[in-house]
Design a protein that fits this description.
- With about 190 residues, the protein is mainly alpha-helical.
- It has a domain at about 145-185.
- About 65% of the residues lie in helices and about 5% in strands.
- The chain contains 11 helices and 2 strands; from the N terminus they run H-H-H-E-E-H-H-H-H-H-H-H-H.
- It has a two-stranded antiparallel sheet.
- Helix 2 (about 45-55) crosses helix 3.
- The longest helix has 29 residues, at about 1-30.
- The chain is extended.
Length: about 190
């Protein structure tokens, strides 16, 4: 009788676990995002995205996905990547979508997150309105020579560090503070 109770308990636990998994799968595939093309596993997990971010190669996954599935791709249960100029304009200018918490987590300063890290609607709206003239396509196109100059200066800095001791560089590489360097490039 005790063996029967144990078997029945294990069977009930397994049935519950299976039902939970089936419910999760059905929920993932019934989502409004289910019509957006992407890999079969996208509705089920974000592990591939986490791996891509942690290795710094998320761009490769995104690029491959856009080539395979088109300009709008679902890469996670709640992650949609857009590479279409008109769709981006619609999303960024016309549609009021809430920003996800990930942006505030990435922000360097929690108390003053800036446009990128601000997820509250009103402060983000004010910042966006204030900064929007500086981000028109025409304005940014005119800045290309400045971008090239500052990036060339950064690359020259790295080259001079590598040329200072080529033997050590081939063995150890060079040490850089990329966040600080990119911050300085952005300020330049």
């Amino acid at each position: 009788m005790a063996v029967f109770s144990v078997v029945l308990g294990v069977a009930a636990m397994l049935a519950t676990m299976i039902l939970i998994q089936v419910r999760g799968i059905l929920k993932a595939y019934r989502s409004p995002l289910s019509r957006i093309p992407g890999p079969w596993y996208a509705p089920l997990t974000t592990m591939h995205l986490r791996w891509g971010f942690s290795t710094g190669e998320i761009w490769k996954l995104v690029e491959r996905s856009h080539k395979a599935y088109g300009p709008i791709v679902r890469l996670g249960p709640r992650q949609v990547w857009v590479a279409d100029k008109d769709a981006l304009k619609e999303i960024l200018v016309k549609v009021d979508l809430p920003k996800v918490a990930m942006y505030s987590e990435i922000s360097r300063d929690k108390h003053s997150p800036g446009l990128f890290g601000e997820i509250r609607y009103e402060p983000h709206k004010r910042l966006k309105r204030f900064l929007s003239p500086a981000f028109t396509v025409a304005y940014i196109d005119n800045l290309e020579k400045y971008f090239q100059k500052t990036m060339r200066e950064l690359l020259n800095k790295y080259e001079s560090q590598m040329n200072a001791d080529p033997g050590a560089v081939s063995f150890n590489g060079i040490e850089v503070d990329l966040m600080d360097d990119l911050h300085n490039v952005a300020l330049d």
